[in-house]
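Researcher: I'd like a structural prediction for the single chain below. Treat it as a standalone chain; there are no partners to consider.
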Amino acid sequence: MDLKSEEALREEAVYEVARKMLIAARTAPKGRGVDNTVMALVGREGIKKISDRLKEMVDKEGAPKFFARDADNILSAPVMLLLGTRIKSLGLNPCGLCGYKNCAEKDAHPGHPCAFNTGDLGIAVGSAVSVAMDHRVDNRIMYTVGQAVLRMGLLGDDVKVVYGIPLSV
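Model: Treating it as a single chain, here is the predicted structure.
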């Protein structure tokens, strides 16, 4: 008899939704058509490492206690999306949305995000979680996870803003 438990099928389904979420995030609109987003999926082993890093941030760096709460919460997710952005101005003139007069002035401050970088990331995150909602998969957008991922360098040194989205059923 070909019998699969609901639990086994559930994890497969969550991974499939995660892959669809990445597609939605990638195809979300980007300013001037320039895509500075970086995305990845991480499974249970990677989630455990990120959880450990969050706890370390509380114990050794003085991060708020809710980082430890989030470290425990992500362990129930079989898969987690990581969505981040590189910090690169788009060369728009006029603009100034980042707080600087123009992109040339902003570029003198390479750690300061272009408003379009973070805006595009927000739109990508929104597109991704709408797919999870359409499939009734529990998710949370977590900046705490992003902080650990940045410290771990998981998405590369040029990625400066990251969110994590753990998924579960």
